[in-house]
Amino acid sequence: MLVLDGKIVSQLLKTEISQKVTEFKAKYHRTPGLGVIIVGNNPASHVYVRNKEIACKNVGMNSIKWDFPEDISEDDLVKQIKKMNELKDVDAFLVQMPLPQHINTDKILDAIDPLKDADGLHPYNLGMLWVNRQIVAPCTPWGVIRILKHYEISIAGKNCVVVGRSQIVGKPMAHLLTQADGTVTIVHSRTKNISDFTRQADIVVVAAGKKHLMGKNDFKVGSVIIDVGIHGSGLSSSDQREKSKISGDVRFDELQGWVSAATPVPGGVGPMTIACLLENTLKLAENRMKIC
Ligand code: NAD
């Protein structure tokens, strides 16, 4: 079984981005900037944001973080987003999810300037993706496409099943696979006999958010398995014991000798998501410079 190593692929992508950032600086005499808005004290969110800041620094981009208390009102948060829309040094930004329950996520995403939408989650960008005029795609599914491309796993003509239909992973994933000429089925929490579908698939992307949901008997021999799920704390990323507790939606240990390739968790799709965020940021920065 080939282990699809997201750490290697993301590092290659980050090296490429870093070179492009150098060219950007030479051409426009400024540094691309990613903004991050974080609300509340969710420890996992703070770790993700910190990792994004480090990733920015490593490729030579600026990062700007605005931190707000858990009880910020929806209206005030929208006002802050509008301020960030206008901030000259910020080329793209994101609002870290999940948000506190009293805040409507759709309203927040709608308030982001689509031309600065680092996560590619604004309805305008999702719509553009849908009509095959991609500006930026949501980072996680785009990272999956990049891993498959890197390992020269062709999608065209393949039977693909996506497990999960969320706005940020499942649905855009299905669209990107369709765009790459795959024959795609989405299954979800209300689908009956899910393994009847996954056992027919050449490529399965599992994004159900259910720890160890699937194992070898859910898959066809020789198929390719992409595990998007992340479970477990893993918060102190420097602590190896904590890291080893992280697991995915797939029982990876069962796959050896059964499937042809699979992503591990950690070290598969996760690192690709941040690299694709940087890629989106640079793309939006270049687009801004062209219209300025
Ligand atoms: P979500 O909860 O928004 O959506 C889960 C989807 O899976 C839903 O559409 C639901 O219908 C479906 N589902 C739930 N239980 C199911 C079951 N038993 N069988 C089949 N389908 C089922 O989650 P999400 O935001 O799409 O994230 C999915 C997973 O991916 C989570 O574990 C999340 O932490 C992880 N994630 C990882 C990254 C990354 O960078 N690797 C990024 C985003 C999300």
What does this protein look like?
With 292 residues, the protein is α/β, with parallel strands linked by helices. It folds into two domains: 29-114, 3-Layer(aba) Sandwich (Rossmann fold); 139-271, NAD(P)-binding Rossmann-like Domain (Rossmann fold). It has ten helices and nine strands. Helix 2 packs across helix 10, helix 6 packs across helix 7 (170-179) and helix 6 crosses helix 10. The longest helix is centred in the N-terminal third of the chain and has 23 residues, at 6-28. The relative contact order is 0.17. The protein binds nicotinamide-adenine-dinucleotide (NAD). Nicotinamide-adenine-dinucleotide is lined by residues 140, 163-166, 168-170, 187-189, 194, 207-210, 213, 228-230, 269-270, 273.
Provide a short characterization of the protein structure.
The protein has 292 residues and is α/β, with parallel strands linked by helices. The protein has ten helices and nine strands.
Q: Which CATH architecture of the largest domain?
A: 3-Layer(aba) Sandwich
Characterize the overall form.
Answer: globular
Question: How many individual domains?
Answer: 2
The biggest beta sheet reads: 6 strands, parallel
* Global mean pLDDT: 96
What is the helix tally? Answer: 10
Give the ligands present: nicotinamide-adenine-dinucleotide
What do we call the CATH homologous superfamily of the largest domain? NAD(P)-binding Rossmann-like Domain
Global structural class? alpha/beta
Helix content: 40-55%
Calculate the terminal CA-CA distance, rounded to whole Å: 49 Å
Helix-strand topology string: EHEHEHEHHHEHEHEEHEH
Strand numbers in spatial order across the main sheet: 1-9-8-7-5-6
**Percent of residues in beta strands:** 5-15%
